[in-house]
User: What shape does this take?
Amino acid sequence: MRYYLASDHAALELKSALHEHLKDLGHDVVDLGPYEASSVDYPDFADKLADALGADPQARGLAMCGTGIGISIALNRHRHIRGALCHDVTGARLTRAHNDANVLVLGARLIGIETAKDVVTAFNEVAYEGGRHQRRVDKLSQER
Ligand code: RB5
Assistant: This one.
């Protein structure tokens, strides 16, 4: 699986730790930035991630900001993104199984690194169930 990573300045340390974790799990990882601690705007990095997944729809994303909220809002303005802000393994498991989430979002100021690694592992391992969920997932990307 290829994972594209994006964050803002508040999540550099978490992004770096999870980059290593995903590589340890055997994934191809592409870090879309930022690469240094100066202040940036999370919508810009959400857009970079959305563009990458638009061009590579089989891949997944991992996005982070301080709370995970701002970058979630920005990501989910793109119809092909199903970004899920998760704080625990149960949320990560269920959003894969029920929502076919293609981006995991984490709040770097709210989650510890070890929990974040477990959340990433769960998100990666669980398959989408389809079935009764498909009609709902299809509606997420419909024009409004
Ligand atoms: C940056 O200070 C902070 O606002 C951002 O990382 C995020 O938490 C916004 O939702």
About this structure: DSSP finds six helices and five strands in the chain. Strands lie at 2-7, 28-31, 60-65, 83-85, 103-107. Residues 2-141 form a domain with the Ribose 5-phosphate Isomerase B; Chain: A, fold (CATH 3.40.1400.10). Residues 8, 10, 42, 65-67, 69-70 surround D-ribose (CB under 6 Å).
